[in-house]
C-alpha cells in the first residue's frame, strides 16, 4: 500500500468511529447525516495538516473537489444518493492516489459482502434484532453507507498495518 502506516493510523483513529456511525445510520434510516460528513472534512483539515507533507495535504483537496463534482453528476442522474456522494467526496482526501486500484477492488468486495449480508439478514430472524430499521423494508434501495463506511475503515486499518 502506498499510504504511510503512520498517516493511515492517525486517520483511522478518528475516522473508523465515524465510518461505523455512517454504516449504522444508513442502515437504520437510509441516510448519511451531514454532521458525519462535515466531521470527516474537519478531521482532514486538522489531522491531515499534521499527518501529511504539505504538498500532499494541499493536493488532496483536489481529490475532494473531483469526487464532489462526479458525485453531484451521478446524483443528478439518479445513480447515487446525495449522502453517498457527499461521503465519497469527504473520504477522497484520505485516500492515497497510488492505492486507488486496490481500493476499487476492495470496495467491490465490501459492496458484495454488504449487499448479500444485508439481504440475508433482511429475510432472516436477525431482522428482529433491529425491527425499526428502514433498510429492511426499503424495497430495492440499499444503504450504500454500509459498504462505503466499511471500505474506508478497512482501507485505513490495512494501511496502518501494511502501509509504506
TrEMBL record:
Signal peptide: none
GO cellular component: membrane
Gene Ontology BP terms: proteolysis
Transferase in keyword set: no
Pfam families linked to this entry: Peptidase_A24 (PF01478)
Regions annotated as coiled coil: none
An annotated Gene Ontology molecular function: aspartic-type endopeptidase activity
The entry's keywords: Hydrolase, Membrane, Protease, Transmembrane, Transmembrane helix
Protein name according to UniProt: Flp pilus assembly protein, protease CpaA
Annotated organism of origin: Tropicibacter naphthalenivorans
Amino acid at each position: 500500500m502506498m499510504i504511510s502506516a503512520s498517516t493511515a493510523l492517525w486517520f483511522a483513529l478518528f475516522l473508523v468511529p465515524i465510518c461505523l456511525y455512517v454504516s449504522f445510520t444508513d442502515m437504520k434510516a437510509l441516510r448519511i447525516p451531514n454532521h458525519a460528513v462535515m466531521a470527516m472534512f474537519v478531521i482532514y483539515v486538522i489531522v491531515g495538516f499534521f499527518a501529511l507533507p504539505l504538498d500532499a495535504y494541499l493536493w488532496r483537496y483536489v481529490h475532494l473537489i473531483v469526487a464532489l463534482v462526479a458525485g453531484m453528476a451521478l446524483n443528478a442522474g439518479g445513480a447515487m444518493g446525495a449522502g453517498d456522494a457527499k461521503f465519497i467526496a469527504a473520504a477522497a482526501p484520505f485516500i492515497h492516489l497510488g492505492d486507488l486500484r486496490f481500493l476499487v477492488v476492495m470496495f467491490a468486495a465490501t459492496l458484495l459482502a454488504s449487499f448479500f449480508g444485508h439481504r440475508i439478514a433482511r429475510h432472516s430472524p436477525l431482522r428482529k434484532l433491529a425491527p425499526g430499521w428502514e433498510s429492511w423494508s426499503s424495497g430495492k434501495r440499499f444503504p450504500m453507507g454500509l459498504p462505503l463506511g466499511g471500505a474506508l475503515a478497512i482501507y485505513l486499518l490495512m494501511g496502518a498495518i501494511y502501509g509504506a
